[in-house]
Amino acid sequence: MPCATPPLLAVPGSLPDFWPHRVIFFANLRSLFFGNNAETDELCHTVGNVDSYGGRLLPILNVLFRGSGNILVLECEPDAALLRYFRNRLGLKPPEYRVIDHRTYQEIGRLARSGTARDIEARLPAIRDWSGAVIDGYVTDSTLTAIADTHALRTLCSPEGSWRGNNKLLLHTFLEQSGLPVFETIIATTPADLPGALAALHDRGFRRAVVKAQIGASGIGLRRVDLPASSAEIARIPAMLFHEGPCLVQGWIEPGVNDVAAIRSPSVQLFVGDDSIHLYDLTEQILSRDSIHEGNEAIPRFLRRDAALKHDMLAITGAAARWLHAQGYRGPGSADFVVAFDRDGRAHPPILCEINARITGATYPAVLARLLAPAGAWLMRNIRFPSAPAGTAILQALDTADLLYRRGAATGLLPINFNPHPRGGIAKAQLLALAPSLRECRQMIDTLPDRLHLEITHDRD
Length: 461
Hints:
alpha+beta
């Protein structure tokens, strides 16, 4: 039986054993919003080529699941040259993979409500042996459970546990009731409550506020509002934020507000198992000016210097991870904080702003870095290639510049995934810099355009 209150192991820099199971994993990224189609459409529009993001699982799935014969079900074909790099240069063993497009996955979901097991089976990819596997995905939705039921298998997490674990309102309520730090928050039950909530936050000294849906990801599901807010600006707040019900309206912490001189955005990478919880890395988000996630790095220098802040973050994450366990969530996740500093460099109490209860953009680099270089630093950036070179050309350019990471090396750049351009070539890549120090990681990324002789720009995750 799973532990009611599982033990907590906080050892940043040390990977847990994760799952002993064999898995058939569906890269159902479009299910992140649990049926909020407007949020899904916004994700596809702003991020682009969402179908290719499941490829990031290829180098880590057999680390997360130690069973034999894992299968990854993707929404598009991965880059063949990158797969060869994983096998030949890194010594990794990517799982077998199959491909079904998102329309087929959606059709399976519709058949789960009105079709038969035979109808569902006819649309699944050709998998010879389903026996002994667990079924998992980025989130557990009704489609995933229907696939599991068709083969008399179980999902690692229930749909309710997956939804509750990603619900920002439920997390906020838990933190507040536990006496842990929270943002200044007013709950808006309907859009009609927004003018009063925003006016109240302006009266408390905030220059901006954010309206958050209960379910959101990658910057989708929230809107920032300048205060005082005009009626026209309030009218532009989309109704999709109320898809799950009441929204959180929160004061935006920024320099110049309430004795704040600087802001940092650290995270704790975690794993919730049946019988134990592991906190295995301390990272920091790299955010754009609009606070959109562009990458991650570890371990932040300010956390190395401030033992009390590190202790508080781990303690809050531990409490929240046990709450996740109680909700029925199982799997990896990321606890994202906001830490404000005063003019003397003293940290305010860290505020846990959200938990992403799934494999996140920080899971891939954290797992690979702690697997390949457990004592070192790492930095992951999303790099866009306007000229859309071939994957082989990117790998060759990295190799020629003596930047391509080889297993056992002290430094190098490791391509985690390639996102193809619709007209061919590679539009974007997730590059992981590994080195003894963050300074060396940043230097590799900063000098990349000159050393590769390719035009590049930084991009969102």
